UniProtKB/TrEMBL annotation:
SUPFAM superfamilies: P-loop containing nucleoside triphosphate hydrolases (SSF52540). This is MoxR-like ATPase. The lineage of its organism: Bacteria, Pseudomonadati, Pseudomonadota, Betaproteobacteria, Burkholderiales. CDD domains: AAA (cd00009). Gene3D superfamilies: P-loop containing nucleotide triphosphate hydrolases (3.40.50.300). Coiled coil: none annotated. Residues 36-197 form the AAA+ ATPase domain. Pfam families: AAA_5. It comes from the Bacteria.
Length: 297
């Protein structure tokens, strides 16, 4: 798809072709982000498809994907650009040897600039999809720096001037909400909250990602996980866990869920001992009984 999608249905279909099944609301948000050239801020629990949609959009739109993983202490040099000091020093030495005068201006030319993801997003053709992942991990000053970038798709480099994108990249920002993203960033973005999928969509996703899985087993896995999400656990399993568990069960040649199989594979779904202890035994038996009600295969 070289043309931007003409409709919400078109973008939903293009994503489905990448085995990413968006909700109608998410497809609408992505459509509008493209049409309005606005960044899209995605929040939601871990494992709800925030990171994956950026890759799926890039593939669907046939655009390069540029990824910036945020972390505490992320700074301009790692996120946007850095001067290549080693090359500048070399240039000065060479100039000295040739008794040629080098002016500071010449030393701050584009060829001495190392482009990091944000700057790459402005200079790459065709306009890429830029994923700014887990923004809540970066510190607040970094968000302040992002404001110019998000508002005007440009970066101002003091020694060089302002670099602007010829065509705006599609920017996807994600947050796991370990802290609130600043209002000023939010104001520049469209916003969408990703929830856990309902049973029908989760089942469709498992089938799309794991075509070889037994249909009945897939139904049971989804019903069980949906049941788990009703419990008051420290960390609820996301889609990533549903898919991991499905893969594990396929690997074990399981054809249906029984207490022993659940017991021995809970660590694929739950990563905290308190949660595992809570679910093991009678709770798992209750969920399995409930699951049989739902699936009644
Ligand atoms: N709507 C979806 N359709 C297909 N696969 C999905 C969908 N949402 C999530 N996934 C899959 O679930 C896993 C977790 O998604 P991810 O994007 O890493 O979650 P997050 O970034 O929200 O923590 C990935 O393997 C991803 O491919
Ligand atoms: Mg993620």
């Amino acid at each position: 798809m070289n043309q931007p999608p003409a409709s919400i249905d078109a973008i939903a279909e293009a994503l489905q072709a990448q085995a990413y099944l968006p909700s109608r609301e998410l497809a609408t948000a992505a459509f509008l982000a493209l049409r309005l050239s606005r960044p899209l801020l995605l929040e939601g629990a871990p494992g709800t498809g925030k990171t994956a949609i950026a890759a799926a959009l890039a593939a669907a739109l046939q655009r390069p994907l540029i990824r910036l993983q945020c972390y505490e202490g992320l700074d301009l040099a790692a996120a946007a650009y850095e001067w290549n000091y080693a090359r500048q020093m070399l240039e000065i030495r060479l100039a000295q040897a040739a008794e040629h005068q080098r002016t500071a201006d010449e030393l701050f030319a584009r060829r001495f600039l190392i482009e990091r993801p944000l700057l790459q997003a402005l200079t790459t053709q065709p306009a890429p999809v830029l994923l700014i992942d887990e923004l809540d991990r970066a510190d607040a000053p970094f968000e302040a720096f992002l404001l110019e970038f998000l508002a005007d798709y440009q970066i101002t480099i003091p020694e060089l001037g302002t670099i602007t994108a010829t065509a705006p990249p599609l920017v996807i920002l994600t947050s796991n909400r370990s802290r609130e993203i600043h209002d000023a960033v939010k104001r520049r973005c469209l916003y969408h909250w990703l929830d856990f999928p309902d049973a029908a969509r989760e089942l469709a996703i498992v089938r799309a990602r794991l075509p070889q899985i037994d249909q009945r087993l897939a139904g049971q896995v989804v019903a069980f996980v949906q049941g788990l999400r009703q419990l008051d656990l420290y960390k609820l399993p996301g889609l990533a866990e549903t898919l991991d568990w499905s893969r594990a069960l396929v690997e074990l040649n399981a054809v249906s869920l029984d207490p022993a199989t659940v017991q021995s594979t809970l660590g694929v779904l739950l990563k905290y001992q308190d949660d595992i202890a809570r679910v093991q035994g009678s709770e798992a038996a209750r969920l399995l009984a409930e699951m049989r009600e739902v699936v009644r295969a």
